[in-house]
Amino acid sequence: MKNMTITLLCVTLVAFVAAPVHAESHFDTGPFVGVSIGGAGFMPRSIGLAETGEREHDNGTAKLTAGYWFSPHWGVAASYVDMGDFTQTYTNGSFRGDVRSVGLGLLGRVAISDRWSLIGEMTLTHNQSKQVSVTGDPAQFSDLSGESTQVVLPRLEINYKVNEAASLFVEAESRGKAAEELKTAYAGIGLRWQF
């Protein structure tokens, strides 16, 4: 995981640095909205209890995005991710939580061809993990619920421009901490509309 994060960071930096080189871009500016569906990753750190099973993710994950491209290479986006519920079982009980994330990001885009582009993003996220139910002593799971605000990177996206208004994309990103001992990530496939 650490090597993947370093690799994604390097690719994002290359994208941001190389953006001015591709001055003649075929990508438009202006507002956009997008939706994607995918999966969430939950990485609870050690809370002093032995885990007895794999994490279970009960619901699908969806992301809504709205933003604005100021130039063919730079933009901003606001996002909301409903990561659904997850359950982690320990020797002393189990924790079931519901995780939501909102974010505001700075986008950088590099054209690969007339239709393909690579998009990188640095995002300020605010995440919240709510306890849905527990078995055992609720106090032992206090570090798995709460909220956290932080800057996370990178988010990477491969984007294919279908026509002047629509594009398809695949994305992967860290969403940061949702609680003191709970990290989150998101990956999905989606559709974006440019106005």
Task: Present the secondary structure layout.
Blueprint: H1 2-18, E1 30-44, E2 56-57, E3 61-69, E4 74-90, E5 93-111, E6 116-135, E7 146-161, E8 166-179, E9 182-194
Task: Explain briefly what this protein structure is.
This protein is mainly beta and 195 residues long. Helix content is 9%, strand content 64%.
Descriptive account of the structure:
9% of the residues lie in helices and 64% in strands. The protein is mainly beta and 195 residues long. It has one domain (2-194): Porin. Strands 1-3-4-5-6-7-8-9 form an eight-stranded antiparallel beta barrel.
CATH architecture: Beta Barrel
Overall mean pLDDT: 84
Rg, rounded, reads: 18 Å
Q: What is the end-to-end distance?
A: 37 Å
Feature tags:
195 residues; mainly beta; 1 helix; 9 strands; disordered N terminus
